[in-house]
Write a structure and sequence with these properties.
The complex is a heterodimer.
Chain A: H1 2-11, E1 13-19, H2 23-34, E2 39-42, H3 74-77, E3 104-105, H4 133-136, H5 138-142, H6 152-166, E4 168-169, E5 183-184, H7 191-204, E6 211-212, H8 223-227, H9 255-261, E7 265-268, E8 271-279, E9 284-292, E10 298-308, H10 312-320, E11 340-343, E12 345-346, E13 349-355, E14 361-365, E15 371-373, E16 390-397, E17 400-401, H11 408-416, E18 419-420, E19 424-433, E20 441-449, E21 455-460, H12 465-484, E22 488-494, E23 506-508, E24 525-526, E25 529-534, H13 549-568
Parallel strand pairs in A: 1-2, 1-10, 2-7, 3-21, 4-5, 10-25
Antiparallel strand pairs in A: 6-15, 8-9, 9-10, 11-23, 12-19, 13-19, 13-22, 15-16, 16-19, 17-18, 20-21, 24-25
Chain B: H1 3-13, H2 30-33, H3 41-54, H4 68-79, H5 82-103, H6 112-123, H7 128-146, H8 149-155, E1 165-170
Helix pairs in contact in B: 3-6, 4-7, 5-6, 5-7, 6-7
Classes of the chains: A alpha/beta, B mainly alpha.
Bound molecules: flavin-adenine dinucleotide (FAD) and iron/sulfur cluster (SF4).
Family (chain A): Belongs to the GMC oxidoreductase family.
GO molecular function (chain A): flavin adenine dinucleotide binding; oxidoreductase activity, acting on CH-OH group of donors
Domain Glucose-methanol-choline oxidoreductase N-terminal (chain A): 228-324
Chain lengths: 572, 173
Amino acid sequence: MANLNTDAIKRRTYDAIVIGSGISGGWAAKELTGKGLKTLVLERGREVKHVVDYPTAQLHPWELPNRGQMRSGVNEANPVVSKCYAFGEATEQFFVKDAEHPYVQEKPFDWIRGYQTGGKSLLWARQTQRWSKYDFEGPARDGFAVEWPISYDDLAPWYSYVEKFAGISGNRDGVAALPDGEFLPPHPMNCVEQYFSESMAKTFGGARPIIIGRCAHITQPQPIHLEQGRSKCAHRTLCERGCPLGGYFSSNASTLPWAAKTGKMTLRPHSVVHSIIYDEKKQKAVGVRVIDSNTKETEEFYAKIIFVNAAALNSNLILLNSTSNRFPNGLGNDNGLLGKYIAFHNYRATINANYEGYLDKTTEGRRPNSAYIPRFRNLLKQETDFLRGYASGFSANRGQRDDRNGWGEDLKTGILNPKLNDFWSVGSHMMGETIPKESNYVALDKDQRDPWGIPQLRISVDYDENDVKMTKDFFEQLTEMYTKAGFTNIRTNDSNRTPGLDIHEMGGVRMGKDPKTSLLNEWNQLHHCKNVFVTDGACMTSTATQNPSLTYMAFTARAADYAVKQLKAKNL
Amino acid sequence: MNRRQIVKGMAATMGGLLVLPAWASAWNTASLQGFQSKLSGLEEALLAEIVETIIPETDTPGAKKLEVHRFVEKIITDCYDQKSRTTFAKGLTRVASMATQSYAKPFLSCTPAQRLEVLTTMSKSADADEQNFIRLARSLTIRGYLSSEYVMTKLMGYEMAPGRYLGCVPVKA
Ligand SMILES: Cc1cc2nc3c(=O)[nH]c(=O)nc-3n(C[C@H](O)[C@H](O)[C@H](O)COP(=O)(O)OP(=O)(O)OC[C@H]3O[C@@H](n4cnc5c(N)ncnc54)[C@H](O)[C@@H]3O)c2cc1C
Ligand code: SF4
């Protein structure tokens, strides 16, 4: 009997467990297996295999059952997820539907999730920028949150490391606010974007650069990409359906198959992690408790190290739910700050206008990218009555219009012969840094449970005065820039959209130097449970203005390297 | 050539521009294939002539030949609420009765000019339901026509994988 038991335990024991197979979990799997660790990847959703499980990827518009329109009732039944621009007839299979995975909105919060192998890496918009030293120095300089325990220089080599493998296209712009990376050739800006860039360079003497976006698309495959079985992006711009060419980075196309090739990875779908098991005698985590979503049976798996990569808020949930005598309030939560200091990006503001130049020019083909305005506000020093600043997108399009007024042959001629607009449409959206605050938090609901018996996550996150002031500044500054560039018909819009829809939720398990005021140390280890690493958005001490996923990748690769070294040195 | 092969082929071209693959010339209404019309034969014929009146055959196929009426029925059934579905069903009946009132014959036996007259009269009707029906029928016909394989590939230069973005090209005269 005792023997059987040890055997059973042995069969369930790995060197490492990774919770979640999305962008960060995929990287953890790749790094840990690459260093020889037998790794179990636990994924709550179903398996989605590259190419074969992308049912809509190659459908032409006329082949979609409703040519792109959602069936009646679906949006009404899904008030949260249907707000996401990427949710539609061709992509709905990769999104969590509202009713399937309930949570409690203490304040309105649009929690957009993808529960499957690859997580949200199938769905993301693939914008990838490095943080700069100004971002890491932010909390210390401006006196909010806590000081980051690492600097840009600590992360820079890891940015390089993940960029080379993932494939990031971009231009070497030499912009201090947005360090250059290991770039594949950039997409071009179009004439009006180029014009705006040059016009602003003159107006602001280089203080407000406008550059082409940096994005995870293979514009020129390198041997490392071909080895992954990925090829050049063909500008289909159907990415959210899954790309059969592997033209953009997803866990499914890149890190997971790479990890599988080592023979060291076991990927277990339908495995909802309930909690991490803490052993009081060993004073460390020994494994995880899983609920099989098919059988609803509870099972346990064991390992020496555990990477928590369930995406920011779910990682908070798992740690909060990992209670023991030693940690009655959640794993590593001696200071009571677990789940607090949640922050996000403020995307509520947009500005649009027309430009009547370059009317003899247009564009051809499609581009899965746009131009970008790095943060210029409060960059080198505090200059406004709000903290931090915002980055913005910028894009120009030569739209066209067809004449739909007639009937019969007239109508036919009208719609088959669209005419270019006599202006270019230009627009920007705001990506504002929000300040992490104790009052923005997630917690376990005391009463409500999900279908697996796990407490539902209660989310309480809101804007504050700083966000309102920053939004106003965005309108003022962008209006000034647009005006100086000669754009006309300038329209601003504050959508007041609910936090969450930015899909850049961060924090709750923040990094810091002091165990009294943070949960994780400079290596993403729980201060009080060193063999548990959290390397997704939950670890973020502040949010900066960059799209965050590239930074999660770099943190994950760096932490995995450290974890394996510590393991080998028998420190874990 | 099946799709998997196409993708393999696309991947193999790697560097260069991608050529429009073989499917572009093959006629296909795949997504409508499984759709069972709930209209009677007569109603279906009526709807076909309505979409054909809106976008008729010239030197290129009209909406009827491109099965736009089947698309219109499917999308009304799948994607619109009960109210719009009722408006639509009532509108069809109204087209039929207008034809008999004005020309003492069924819509199907009217000349193209008479059919057009029926639809344009309804589009200016004082009855909101009649106007809404025409607005819906017109916009769905246009959508179904423009998103049909024939129009996209033969007339509008559709490319699934353009393989390029050029940011500043001269406008063709
Ligand atoms: C439409 C859209 C556009 C976006 N655009 C960008 C962009 O341009 N740039 C950018 O940087 N980011 C973008 N993002 C955000 C980006 O997708 C996320 O930052 C990124 O996926 C986070 O990686 P992750 O590993 O933390 O989480 P995910 O990729 O979400 O993966 C988490 C995984 O964990 C699994 N999981 C959760 N709970 C459990 C549990 N209890 N047990 C087991 N498994 C669990 C989930 O099923 C999921 O597979 C976008 C997101 C969306 C949806
Ligand atoms: S734009 Fe590129 S990466 Fe996206 S689906 Fe198309 S080919 Fe794939």
